[in-house]
Amino acid sequence: MNAAIxxxxxxxxxKYGIRGIAVKALxxxxxxxxxxxxxxxxxxxxxxxxxxxxIILGLLRPNSGxxxxxxKPVSKDxxxxxxxxxxxxxxxxxxxxxxxxxxxxxxxGMKSEKATAAAEKALDTVGLSDAANRQVGxxxxxxxxxxxxxxxxxxxxxxxxLDEPAxxxxxxxxxxxxxxxxxxxxxxxxxxxCSHMMSEVEKLCSRAAxxxxxxxxxxxxxxxxxxxxxRVRLDIDGADAKTLAKISEFxxxxxxxVVEKSAAKISLEEFFKRTVEAGK
Amino acid sequence: xRNITLISIxxxxxxxxQKLMLIIALVALALVLSSKYLLxxxxxxxQLRFVFDFGSGALGFFGSIMAVVATCQIFHSEIENKTAIxxxxxxxxxxxxxxxxxxxxxxxxxxFAFAIAAATCAMLFITRLGFGNSExxxxxxxxxxxxxxxxxxxxxWCKLCAISAVSAFICSxxxxxxxxxxxxxxxxxxxxxxxxxxxxxxxSEGFARLASYIFPDFHVFSALxxxxxxxxxxxxxxxxxAYAALYSFAxxxxxxxxxxxxxx
Lengths: 280, 264
Prior knowledge:
The complex is a heterodimer. Chain A contains nine helices and ten strands. By secondary structure, chain A is of the alpha/beta class. Chain A has a domain at 241-279. In chain A, the strands form two sheets. Chain A has a six-stranded mixed beta sheet, sandwiched between helices. In chain A, strands 2-1-4-5 form a four-stranded antiparallel beta sheet, covered by helices on one side. In chain A, helix 2 (97-107) packs across helix 3 (112-125) and helix 3 (112-125) crosses helix 4 (141-153). Chain B has one domain (2-260). The mean pLDDT of chain B is 85. In chain B, 76% of the residues lie in helices and 0% in strands. Chain B is mostly helical. Chain A binds chain B through residues 54, 57-61, 76-77, 79-80, 82, 84, 86, 88-92, 94-95, 103-104, 106-109, 148, 151, and chain B through 2-3, 6-7, 10, 13-14, 17, 81-83, 85-93, 263-264.
């Protein structure tokens, strides 16, 4: 698999004050994200996620190390293949949704008519067709997030970088966002997903990296990262306390231990979605 | 070039929506339109020249304020509102960003210069109409050259563009709007001081000459007022416009370099 993003030994320091005291933001991170992969970048606040993204986009210069996009150094040309949804996107409030998205499409080199058509399609994809002719200043937080996603995908980029895509979205909006990410994956796009919502990353990403204090604390396939060595989970239907006790005894006779027993539950997100759907 | 055009048109929309800019433009326009009615304040000045001075003053004074404030505001609002991050994540170079912002401000200034020039011409025409039978006495031998007024306004616009370009450069290296506005006005003050010094007979040599290379040399434009009531000196006109164009180009190139060193 070719690498969509290749980062090697990236270091970044921010200097503050007159004396230029340096604060370490990235401390030699290296990783490779393959083409067509949905990769999660997670970590606590101040771990260096946004700094990494800004370096990939050429908005920040690393103090050392290298970043390559589809084998090329970060440049204006390389950015043609990137779509970026910033965390808390801010846009020109006086433009309408369609004007905004077609403005960004034109900046990516699309001709006027093609840009408008692409903007309409992108707004439709994110579910903003109805508000396409409304000024962005009148959009809610969730609508801004959708508009942000529309401008990120309007030029059909090969690499989509999403910084907190579900921020400000209700669970249904977040599910729509997840569906779009899945669609992007099915279309063969590479997605770099940066999020604080672990369930979102777990569900969508095939691989993930955890950044901590500017270093990669863990990286690998999602299944492998979350696997507990030697343990298996069984979901059993229709078992009462007696049956469970027998199962535990049987497991013990085979040399295995039942470590944890609890009622099977759906996630709160799933429960919320079901309840809202039922209430409609 | 296309990206610069897109950014500049967007910047023009943004500038025209700034209430402060509209207020400054309206005050300037009101001043020009009231010039005929302020003739009673004239103390022996030729009436037509009095009216023209209002237009010239409005263009120079309010135009300079607009050039500084509008440029600084559009640069910093883009950075502070974080719209620059989305913009620069697209295939847009830092030089294109700086040039787009500058041309957007230049277009807004062009609209302002056009409005003031049109109002000045209208007021000169109305004032002349009011002379009636006493035209020979009241006009004091002055004949309005409307093309000259327009040429003067164009040259003034070029001067405003040079001021805007300097502000763009200052914004590209500064981190606060207030700092950019203050330093831009200091440059404006230094240039005006240089212009006054030369007008009073001071010589442009040594440090003064060096300063005239660093700060915009307004003296180049001050003689063009004579176009309003006399022939247009094409050489002088072309020299002033070329100077402003070269100065603006150098300042915008410096702004592009400043932006490219900036981290967003």
